[in-house]
Structure formats: structure tokens, C-alpha cells
Amino acid sequence: MAWFKKERKPRTSERVKLEIPADAWEKCDECGHIDIKDRFIRALNVCPNCGHHRRISAQEYIDLLVDEGSWHELDPGLKSTDPLKFESYKERLQVAAKKAGPLEAVRSGYARLDGMPIDLAVMDFNFMGGSMGSVVGEKIARLTRRSTEKRLPLIIISASGGARMQEGVLSLMQMAKTSVEIARLRSARIPFVSVLTNPTTGGVSASYAMQGDVILAEPGAVIGFAGPRVIKQTIGQDLPPGFQTAEFLLEHGMMDAVVPRSELRDTTAQLLRHMGGRRPAEAAD
User: Fold this and answer.
1) Residue 3 in domain
2) Containing domain of residue 30, as a range?
3) What pLDDT is recorded for position 169?
4) Quick one: 101 and 195 in the same domain?
5) DSSP string, 99-168
6) Which residue in 85, 173, 204, 248 could disulfide with 160, CB within 3.0 to 4.6 Å?
7) 151 and 46, same structural domain?
8) Contacts 24+ apart (CB under 8 A), 253-256
9) Do 117 and 246 fall into the same domain?
10) pLDDT value at 8 more than 80
11) Are 154 and 143 in contact, with CB atoms under 8 Å apart?
12) pLDDT tens for residues 239-281?
């Protein structure tokens, strides 16, 4: 005789509906894969299905690359004065700052990467398409000059649609100004690693972005000067498919490696050590 009797609950056909908020899901722009947002975040905003690298902010690149607590920003308050009085430019700058966070399309500073002191600039496509105006050029030039004076390796992560039309020739002259400082850095034999992300085009690709001692790119990044339609109209020829992708340029000797975002920190640190970067303990010897 059983001392205890288990009560059986009647079965029901009703299923408990889980309430999942709509913003918990993300969709890949490349393959259409839908997944929980947290999976994209944990994968550094790389699609877990097809590997497509989505755009991330300058702050996310900084967090990814440098040692925790080592980042010190330079010139964070530098912003354009609208020298040409271009219509609605000031308003667009204000909107872009609210959207992206920083006051300009590049953030520059110094930090440590795997213990090695570095100078770092990161462009932010969320700020007016990462366009290069007088402030972007000035911050890149100042940081490069600092690298030369302090003999620190320079890393620039680019993401840009090109020169900023609202600043006219003042924007275009930044190509020459930044290139002069990169040339001085090279003469001093100080390493410069250039990282190209999607997209790196226009005046940025035609100046400092393609002048690194080592040029890396994220998978699938669009890299070039003018767009395919403009090039076709100019030369009157059909172009091979994917001719402006990182993989195509690597195959044709225009860069050194295509590096997944998850491997960017380790790859860059290994390159700098190979090129003479030293940890603090080694530098003291």
C-alpha cells in the first residue's frame, strides 16, 4: 500500500506564449539571417551565419583593440567652424554629433595594445559618412606628428566615404597635409599599421589609408576611390565583379592581409612586436 499518492494534473493543449520584445532580434543585411541581437553583439557584430562584418562605432573598435583602461583621448573638443558658411552645415554637424556621439568623424588618442604603447585614430562612419574635413585631417596630422616625436607605432582604422564637400578645397587639402606627416613618420622608421573597414573610399583611400607599412582590411570591405558607375563612365569598360572588395585587392597585391574582426587585436599586436614594438618591461631594459 502506497503511503503517498502523486496528484496528476489534467493535461491541457494550451501552450505558454513567451513574450520576446521586437528589438531583441537583428537581421543580417547581407544574407537576411535573423538571430537574437545578443548573438550578434557577442560575435563583435559579425553575422553568425555568413560572416558579414557589420559597421561598428569608433568606441567599439577602441574597446576591441586597446588594453582595458589604457585609452586617453586627444583633442576631443576639436570641431569645424563652418569656414565656407555652407547652407545647413552647422545643423548637420549637430545632428551627426547626436547620432555618433563624438564631435567629429575621427577619434584620436594614445593607449596600450598588449602592453605596447601606441597612438591610435579610429574613424566613425556614423558621423556624416566618416567624411574627411579640416578637423579630421588636423587630428590625423597631429596624432601622426606625435607618433614621430615620441617614436610610437601608429594605427589608423579608416571608414570613410571621402572628402567632406561642405568644406570644399579645405577638405581636399587634408589629403596633402596628412600625407606629409605620414612621410615624416616613414622617414623616422616608425611603424604605421593601416586598417581598412567598410567602406574606405574617396580622399581617405587616396591619402593616408593606403600609406601604411602594413595594410589590413576587414572581410568584404569596400575599398576604392570613385564608385563603379563613375569609373565605368570614365574608362568606358566593364569592370570585374567585386573589384573594390578587400579580397580582390589582396589577390592583386594592393594590401597585406584580410583579417576577421575577432583576430584584429592579436594580429596587430603580433605585427607591432615583429616591427619593434616593446612591452613596458622590455622598454625599461
Assistant:
1) no
2) 24-54
3) 95
4) yes
5) HHSSSSSEEEEEEEETTEEEEEEEE-TTTGGG-B-HHHHHHHHHHHHHHHHHT--EEEEEEE--B-GGGH
6) 204
7) no
8) 254/210, 254/215, 254/223, 255/196, 255/215, 255/216, 255/217, 255/223, 256/214, 256/215, 256/216
9) yes
10) no
11) yes
12) 898 999 999 999 999 999 999 999 999 999 999 999 986 655 4
CB 180 within 8 A of CB 187: no
In this structure, the strands spanning 72-74 and 106-113 are: antiparallel
Verify that 32 and 110 share a domain, yes or no.
no
Q: Are residues 31 and 128 in the same domain?
A: no
Number of domains in the chain: 2
What is the average pLDDT across 214-225?
98
pTM tops 0.85: yes
117 shares a domain with 36: no
pLDDT tens digits, one per residue of 230-241: 898 899 988 898
Neighbours of 269 (CB within 10 A): 18
Residue type, 84: L
**What is the pairing mode between strands 25-27 and 192-200?**
unpaired
- Please say if the pLDDT value at position 4 is more than 70: no
Q: Return all residues near 215 (Cβ < 8 A) that are at least 6 apart.
A: 194, 196, 254, 255, 256
pLDDT of residue 14: 61
Q: What's the pLDDT score for residue 114?
A: 96
Please, are residues 156 and 195 in contact by the beta-carbon 8 Å criterion? yes
Residue 5 included in any domain: no
Q: What's the rounded Cα separation, in Å, for the pair 233 and 118?
A: 43
Residue 284, pLDDT score: 40
- Both 43 and 80 in one domain: the answer is no
The CATH number for 209's domain is: 3.90.226.10
Confidence of residue 229 (pLDDT cuts 50, 70, 90): confident
Is there a contact between 212 and 192 (Cβ–Cβ < 8 Å)?
yes
